[in-house]
Design brief:
alpha/beta; binds 2-phosphoglycolic acid; 253 residues; single chain; 8 strands
């Protein structure tokens, strides 16, 4: 059974005070079902991971990081390794978020190395994929998503890939208020599931959770979650408001 999974990506928002208040509010609001009927994670900026971990306390809300470096330690100024993230309590890490791909310029090959480094360091990667608006308009969505998945998971054994959560986030729907319709999202989720069957096997593909992300809000979460291959939600803007994030989590239960 795949338990639904809702993760809140705080991006470069909050501070040491507001991050703690947000984490505490979410923790008390979802105490009854987090970690039981739904898996929940919050993904704050690196420097607030530890204070947020303390604020989450025994709430069963998992902690995630927004990025990870490909090496385990050494002279890599400014970077953070998987073992460091694990050390401060992270369970998950985003790999290949669209802002890392399109604002920072990370190519598929680097994303693949990050997925590998995350798994080697004991973290659960959330591999994000998704097409640009121009790519969708040119009917290239399937081609782009297929490439990102094949390259992102290159070299991963069946055992390793079972640690991965997938996230489909059409770039044109992120932070724009535009949203893929549940049907548009389902089409790409089904494509992703099919690719996992082709690359691995049906049983493994069935067990992997595929999250949808891109302008998820309390008002659209339920319809998205009704789709066959949507197993959870990756939430940006709405995860910065405890009431909205809680409502999204409730819609996924
Ligand atoms: P959004 O961001 O919900 O603000 O569109 C989603 C994401 O980038 O993960």
């Amino acid at each position: 059974m795949r338990r639904p999974f809702v993760a809140g990506n705080w991006k470069m928002n909050t501070d040491s005070h507001t991050g703690v208040i947000l984490a505490e509010a979410i923790a008390s609001a979802v105490l009854e079902f987090a970690g039981r009927s739904v898996d929940v994670a919050v993904i704050p900026p690196f420097i607030y991971l530890q204070v947020v971990a303390r604020a989450l306390g025994a709430s069963h809300i998992a902690l995630g990081a927004q990025d990870v470096y490909i090496e385990s330690k050494g002279a890599f100024t400014g970077e953070i390794s998987a073992s460091m993230l694990k050390d401060v309590g992270c369970a998950y890490v985003l790999c290949g978020h669209s802002e890392r791909r399109h604002v920072i310029g990370e190519p598929d090959e680097l994303v693949n190395k990050k997925v590998m480094a995350a798994i080697s360091g004991g973290l659960l990667p959330i591999l994000c994929v998704g097409e640009l608006l121009a790519e969708r308009e040119a009917s290239r969505t399937n081609e782009v998503v297929t490439r990102q998945i094949k390259n992102g998971l290159a070299g991963l054994s069946v055992e390793k890939v079972s640690a991965v959560t997938m996230a489909y986030e059409p770039v044109w729907a992120i932070g724009t208020g535009l949203m893929a319709t549940p049907q548009q999202a389902q089409e790409v989720h089904a494509l992703i599931r099919g690719l996992l069957v082709e690359m691995y096997d049906g049983q493994l593909a069935d067990g992997i959770r595929i999250l949808y992300g891109g302008s998820v809000k309390p008002g659209n979460a339920e319809d998205l979650m009704h789709q066959r291959d949507i197993n959870g939600l990756l939430v940006g803007g709405a995860s910065l408001n405890a009431d909205d994030f809680t409502a999204v989590i409730q819609a996924a239960v």
